[in-house]
Specification:
The complex is a heterodimer of chains A (174) and B (450). Chain A is an alpha+beta fold and 174 residues long. Chain A contains 7 helices and 4 strands. Chain A folds into 2 domains: 62 residues, Arc Repressor Mutant, subunit A, CATH 1.10.10; 86 residues, Glutaredoxin. In chain A, a hairpin with a 3-residue loop joins β3 and β4. By secondary structure, chain B is an alpha/beta fold. In chain B, β5 and β6 form a beta hairpin. The chains are: A alpha+beta (174), B alpha/beta (450). Chain A: Keywords: 2Fe-2S, Iron, Iron-sulfur, Metal-binding.
């Protein structure tokens, strides 16, 4: 659902506008709306989520009505309309992964991070959620970690712990 | 050894680069098509090959191509469907990761055949690593002169772009994919008009699966007739099978169509049998949407003949005792797996992924999920089984796109073949979360199913 309680005023950098322009150049004249999904990915990669202000500015850039952006951003599951953790851990929760232990991995994730699905840890570093089939069923359980979408297969509880420790370390050094 | 056409060089180090791919004979099909064949010649070879769409519907690719409208002065588009999201299916991700130039080469050959000068590869947004790999392959192909203006001096121009999705199973449906590519919600369109007449931006468009497009490369190289020699009857060529679940060696396998299911599951050349020494309880042959079959119908048809990995043999018996090839997403369930729980999981998936356009699907998937949840967690009533049957029957065939049907079939087949397990959950509510359900239907020698 679209939440208007939180907003974040953004100013797109010239570098980001350059990327927008490259995306728009992929489509025929007048079909710049096609650039919407890729541009929303670029904005989310920059800011971590899509605030109403960010979406309005995308609408402006593509000469769309704001609603055309909201309806797309709220339809697709990859777009975050609220702030998330710096790292978003997404475990596949669909059938084939569950046959090989995905539910166990999700329970472990909740215990280890200490927050329920969808919420952000107190230090702002992590949020996690179950997502639908990630198309790696033969290598399950699987996990992807945003914002860069690194992919991890054949998960065990130990491996999850290790990945979380690595991310904490990475955050400390940044 | 079975013949391989797509994954022949999969283990060659660096096969994801243009240089190594070319050293293994890559881009020969582009040279052959553009220099020695007319676009119609290419279409003709694909028709002769008998290639059927590898995304799930199994519609003959050559025929789909021949429906493409060609009005003067209107651009035509080829759109590759790389929105692989059908639970149990992961072959396209594998192909794009390991050998991306096979897809690019197929895109060039196919676009040439269709007269498209712009083509898009729609890859689901979650596959960011694959998007980067395919984009790099496109850049390599372009700098080598296989894309861009006047390719290999033929006068033919082509640009290929990658379009990321946003996370929506429904965008695997071709008209939802086109809506998404136009920057909209992925709501499937009412057909007709079909994309071949009015597709992307209202222009004639062909949408093909990643594997189908890659398969045009060996078809151009060796000829359609050669391709059609592999396989049985109307199931020609090779097919990538994604094998998952409780198998010794899950993974992606290229098989010659016609391979017996039994051999695929138990042979060491393929999955190597059921993991941990357990027995096979059930299988899903073509992704979560196709009917689930119990052990006794997995490897043999109701007539007692060996079941083969072909479109026809998997469908033998219709939906009463058969299933479908679908996308080739092969899921094996061992004796400890709970069919009710799995059906609940799949139904939750369809509920989550319903675009909400048609009420039978929007409301029905959620309703089925609630009823299944009740049964799985020990609050079910025996009448709930009939209720489930009734709901799925009212979804099936009553929606704009096949997602509705896809949500109904797993429920219908689970009840048809495993009704005793649903009853067991209802009659033993306190044990509904255990794995003690009745085992009779698969451990015994073949129980005839009517």
């Amino acid at each position: 659902m679209l939440s208007v309680q939180e907003n974040m005023i953004v100013t797109f950098t010239p570098a980001l506008f350059d990327k927008f322009a490259e995306v728009v150049s992929r489509y025929p004249e007048g079909k710049q709306k096609s650039a919407l999904l890729p541009i929303l990915h670029l904005v989310q990669a920059e800011y971590g989520w899509l605030s109403v202000d960010a979406m309005d500015k995308v609408a402006d850039y593509l000469a769309l009505k704001p609603i055309e952006v909201y309806e797309v951003a709220s339809f697709y599951t990859m777009y975050f309309l609220q702030p998330k953790g710096k790292f978003v851990l997404e475990v596949c929760r669909t059938g084939p992964c569950c046959l090989v232990g995905a539910e166990r991995i999700m329970q472990h994730m909740e215990k280890r991070l200490g927050v329920p699905e969808g919420q952000v840890t107190a230090d702002g570093l992590f949020s996690w959620r179950g997502v639908e089939c990630l198309a790696a069923c033969g290598f399950g359980p699987v996990l992807q970690i945003g914002p860069s979408y690194t992919f991890h297969e054949n998960l065990t509880e130990e491996r999850v712990d290790q990945l979380i420790d690595e991310l904490k370390e990475k955050a400390k050094n940044q | 050894m079975a013949r391989k056409l797509l994954l022949t060089h999969i283990d060659v180090p660096g096969i994801d680069t243009l240089e190594v791919y070319r050293r293994q004979g890559g881009y020969r099909a582009v040279e052959k098509a553009l220099k020695t064949m007319s676009p119609d010649d290419v279409v003709e070879e694909v028709k002769k090959s008998g290639l059927r769409g590898r995304g799930g519907a199994g519609f003959p690719t050559g025929m789909k191509w021949s429906f493409l409208a060609k009005p003067d002065g209107v651009p035509r588009y080829l759109v590759c469907n790389g929105d692989e999201s059908e639970p149990g299916t992961f072959k396209d991700r594998f192909l794009m990761t390991k050998i991306p130039h096979a897809l690019i080469e197929g895109m060039i050959v196919s676009s040439y055949a269709l007269g498209a000068n712009t083509a898009y590869i729609y890859i689901r947004g979650e596959m960011m690593p694959q998007i980067r790999i395919v984009e790099r392959a496109i850049a390599e192909a372009k700098s080598a002169g296989f894309l861009g203006k006047n390719i290999l001096g033929s006068g033919y121009d082509l640009e290929v772009y990658v379009q990321p999705g946003g996370g929506a199973y429904i965008c695997g449906e071709e008209t939802a994919l086109l809506e998404s590519l136009e920057g909209k919600r992925g709501n499937p369109r009412i057909k007709p008009p079909f994309p071949a007449v009015a597709g992307l931006y209202g222009c004639p468009t062909v949408v093909n699966n990643v594997e189908s497009i890659a398969a045009t490369v060996p078809i151009v190289n060796d000829g359609g007739e050669e391709y059609a020699k592999i396989g049985i009857e109307r199931s020609t060529g090779t097919k990538l099978i994604s094998a998952s679940g409780n198998l010794v060696r899950p993974g992606v396998y290229e098989i010659e169509l016609g391979l017996p299911v039994e051999e695929f599951i138990y042979s060491d050349e393929y999955c190597g049998g059921i993991a941990n020494g357990k027995r096979l309880k059930a299988m899903v042959a073509g992704g979560s949407s196709v009917p689930i079959l119990p052990n006794n119908l997995a490897t043999k048809t109701a007539k007692g003949e060996a079941r083969l990995m072909t479109y026809e043999s998997l469908a033998d018996g219709g939906f009463v005792t058969g299933t479908a090839m679908g996308s080739g997403g092969f899921i094996a369930f061992d004796e400890d797996q709970c069919i009710v729980r799995n059906t609940l999981n799949f139904t939750r998936f369809y509920h989550h992924e319903s675009c909400g356009q048609c009420s039978p699907c929007r409301e029905g998937t959620g309703w089925m999920e609630k009823v299944l949840h009740k049964i799985e967690y020990g609050h079910g009533d025996i009448a709930d089984i009939d209720l489930l049957w009734d709901i799925q029957r009212k979804i099936d065939g009553n929606t704009i796109c096949p997602l509705g049907d896809a949500s109904a079939w797993p429920v219908a087949s689970a009840i048809r073949h495993f009704r005793d397990e649903f009853e067991w959950h209802i009659l033993n509510p306190r044990e509904s979360q255990t794995r003690n359900f009745g085992l009779a239907h698969y451990a015994d020698p073949l129980v005839p199913v009517v």
